[in-house]
Amino acid sequence: MLQLIARGAAVCFVSRGYHKSPQVTTIIIIIMAAVNDFKTNIDNACRAGEEFSKVFYETFDKRRHVLNKLYLDTANLVWNGNVVKGPQEITKFHDNLPHSEHTLITLDCQPLPDEATQGQATVLVTTSGTVTFEGNNRMKFTQNFTLTNQGNVWKVASDCFRCQEEE
Amino acid sequence: MYVHKTGHVTYTAPLIGPLLSAIAERKVGACVEEMAHKGLFGRALEDTFKVTTSRDGSRSFFGHDDRTSSGSRDRGGGFGFNRDRGGGGGGGGSWRGGYDQNRDGGYRSGGRGGQSRGSNRNRYRGNRRGWKKGGPGRGGGGGPTPRSRFEDDEGDIQMSDDGNESQSQRYNPYGRPESRRSNRPNDSGRGRRGRGSGGGYRDLDEPGTSHSNRAEGGDEDGWHKITVIQGKRSVKNWLLSTLQKMCPVPFQPTEFHYEKNHAVFYVPDRATAEGLTSISRKVKTREGYRLVLLSKVETPETVRMVNKTTMEAIKLSMAKRFDAATSALNLSNLFGDIELQAQDIRVALSRKMYMNSVIAIIKENVPVIERLDMSNNRLFHLGDLADLVSVRKGVKYLNLSHNELKSEFELDKIKEWKLEELWLDGNPVCNNFKEQSAYISAVRKRFPKVVRLDGHELPPPIAFDLESNTALPETKGSNFDNDVCRKIIMDFLEKYFMVYDSEDRQGLLEAYHDQAYFSLCVSHPQAAPHYQRKSLQDFCRESRNLLFVNDLSQRVKFLKHSRLNVVAFLNELPHTQHDPNSFVIDVGVAMNSLICFTVSGVFREVVSKSGGNPPIRSFSRVFTAVPAPQGLCIVNDMMTISAASPTQEKAAFTSPAPTPSPSPVPGLSGLSEPQQQMVKMFAEQSGMNEEWSQSCLEQNGWEYNKSAQVFTELKAQNKIPPEAFLK
């Protein structure tokens, strides 16, 4: 959509010979930048989500004791309906879970529109897959996270997990 | 070709009985001599004969029922512990030996009046386990004629696929009519292609073996077997990707393998099979051949089950054999179950089809098993039972006594079970150990926690105080951060799904923000059972699974952005009906400026493409929304769809009226703010509970004074039931 507008604008300006005017050129560049921004934004969100899902599940399965570093101080975990608030409590909760093994089947990420977050870069990550907790049957799960960018580091603001018996 | 003599004798024995086995043996001898004179088969037969003598012991087994005893004994070595088979004549490796015996046994027996009918099947059972390991033994015997080599090749291709079909049903490229495969008496057998095991399989239906009602593996719309003629000439990857590209219906091949030079795989429904046959002769290979695809109804062995009536009967019998108090399932001698026998059903758990069915029943009906008794079932391997291990982890007691297990390595397949008590006595494997301590050690190696073996107490297991707990926190229902949140979300969802489930989803425009994002993901594992893979294709095309969609432009394309795009896209998705009773809601973020919550549950598609029942899907949607004058305004919407599990399917749409699920105060949902206040006031003044107060107000059109008047009148006449005043 934006791309079309940008192209249209460019054609329009160029055909009218306005392109020599530095002001118009600036406008075109801004529009183009907006298009690129949109793509870059999505690309960033996707990469953040990809990196995150790798790190998160690997840490969860293998080095769960450092998992709390990923969570924001105000983070919120909802695990199968159990609400846990704050990194300490989350650590405690995670420690009590049996050893786990996650296998991802899907991953999807979306950036939140700037209007909704007052400029705070935020990404939604949704995953689904199977998980086996030691001594339990394999289960299907879906999980979603909101990640926010805190000075070059992405942190988990909320974490929602639901699983159900596979069969 | 090489060892069939031995095989033949063994087959014959169970059928005609021990007394005849000697005669049969003599016959074999005669046959060998006679054949040897012909020269053609001479060398092979000599080899064969050698093997026979070296393996004399195998003749003494008499499997009296049609389970696997005789077959399994012969093959026993196959698990790795072999009696020496005496040289290359036996086809090399032990497993191979079993296989050759089988095929040739059938072949021979065809030529000799079909004496081996009935028990060939046992052989066949054995083979399947053997196929995988068949490779190394190959060529050890060196078929004496091109013909036999040819057969041998065929065998090897078969062997590459562990869970393959019975040979009687497999694709026959030369159009040999089915009837030719039966063991006709007086058939010379010379020109036939060693389909002994196939014949054996058919023998299942022989009168008297009680298998007349065995399953056919599915109706017309079930699994289809696709054969790509000469498919081996093309590289597998190229072949599959080309077919997937050309085929109008997306599909996932199951159990891809080769049969001779043909590529073979299975697809789960007829639509897919028809899609594939429609592109037959339309695809050119790189070499310029046109690919010919054939399809026929056939269920892969790995998913085959017994038919419905049998299933029900087994289910009933299993229900009687299950003790819920101790979570104990007693499947001991299921074959000899009197009630099942009365219905002419013999459940031979050593056959995968029956084990599959039993496991399916367990999955559906028995959530927890702690004690499992599998004794007296003639199990000769535990590969099929292993399917149960991953789904029912809690088994602590296992009785495997009086089966036909030959090797301790079988136990490896079920070692995930943290057994505390195990019974193994009466299995040949027990005789493999010279000392009791070696036996215990072998068991402990797999099950370190076992404290009782065959009823004897064992020294306490080695334990460290590092045992982690395995209990999961209790699963709770919907979680709302607070009641305000709950109300907002419930109101929103009710409206949202009302429009979403309607014919036209344009009304959703209101619900989305200008800059809203939407994306969709289809979640189904590659190894999913067919019901999960079935026909999610409407959604698959737009699935933005970042694990597979790597290209940025694709990622941008699949992410719908802006209100118009999102709603236009939603409008194209299949019409649905959501089950509000299935909804579970979790609120992740609840701030004044932003709310993020997850709704999961099931919906069904209103129109069924395949003509059957409309499919039921499981979904999970993550909504992120900002406050808006009329409630909420969605900025992000992420949908994950998968097929509903059998449990979900069963529970779906069972509650009749779609009442809005968990509401803050029962009975007061759906009321406006002033109405709620009115109800409360009325309840206070009249002394009735809120429910009755509400209905009274409703019946009087929310006119407070009129309601009060009616109430007073009725109360005076004593017409209000006492429960109205229960609070």
Automatic annotation (TrEMBL), chain A:
Ranges where the NTF2 domain occurs: 48-163
GO cellular component: nucleus
Chief site of localization: nucleus
The entry's keywords: Nucleus, Protein transport, Transport
GO terms, biological process: nucleocytoplasmic transport; protein transport
SUPFAM superfamilies (UniProt xref): NTF2-like (SSF54427)
Keyword Nucleus: yes
Subcellular location(s) of the protein: Nucleus
UniProt-recorded name of the protein: NXT2 protein
TrEMBL record, chain B:
Domain NTF2: start-end pairs: 488-641
Comp. bias intervals (Gly residues): 87-96, 107-116, 133-144
Comp. bias regions, Basic residues: 120-132
Pfam families with a match to the protein in the record: LRR_NXF1-5 (PF24048), NXF_NTF2 (PF22602), Tap-RNA_bind (PF09162), TAP_C (PF03943)
UniProt-listed GO biological process terms: poly(A)+ mRNA export from nucleus
Bias (Basic and acidic residues): 56-86
Protein's name according to its UniProt entry: NXF1 protein
Source organism (scientific name): Branchiostoma lanceolatum
Gene: NXF1
